[in-house]
């Protein structure tokens, strides 16, 4: 469910963003309310609300007054773009720094990646 590594509202916001990215919630579709999330996950409603508001602030969700929260148009692309940039920052950039230190060219790196993708993983 949730772990102790990060605040619950951040984990819940990431989980909802994952669901948007994977199509569980389509754009313009309503997401569960604060109270529904709190009851289902057995968490404080304030925590659930904080997660939803974080996604509203990020442009992933929007509020329809008196109706609920909905997935914003373009949310899937927004999440994908942010995660791609995170992938570059966490993995690609350090890989390139190490590759340069090892004297590998771009072609060498591409060749190594292609080789790894063709070999079966243990």
From TrEMBL:
Q: Which UniProt keywords apply?
A: DNA-binding, Transcription, Transcription regulation
Stored Gene3D superfamilies: Winged helix-like DNA-binding domain superfamily/Winged helix DNA-binding domain
Q: Which residues form the HTH gntR-type domain?
A: 6-74
Tell me where on the tree of life, at the top rank, the source sits.
Bacteria
**InterPro entries associated with the record:** Tscrpt_reg_HTH_GntR, WH-like_DNA-bd_sf, WH_DNA-bd_sf
Q: Which GO terms describe its molecular function?
A: DNA binding; DNA-binding transcription factor activity
The UniProt record lists the keyword Transferase: no
Q: Which CDD domains match?
A: WHTH_GntR
Tell me the SUPFAM superfamilies matching this sequence: Winged helix' DNA-binding domain
User: PANTHER family this protein is in?
Assistant: GNTR-FAMILY TRANSCRIPTIONAL REGULATOR (PTHR38445:SF10), HTH-TYPE TRANSCRIPTIONAL REPRESSOR YTRA (PTHR38445)
What protein am I looking at? Answer: GntR family transcriptional regulator
To which species is this protein native? Leucobacter triazinivorans
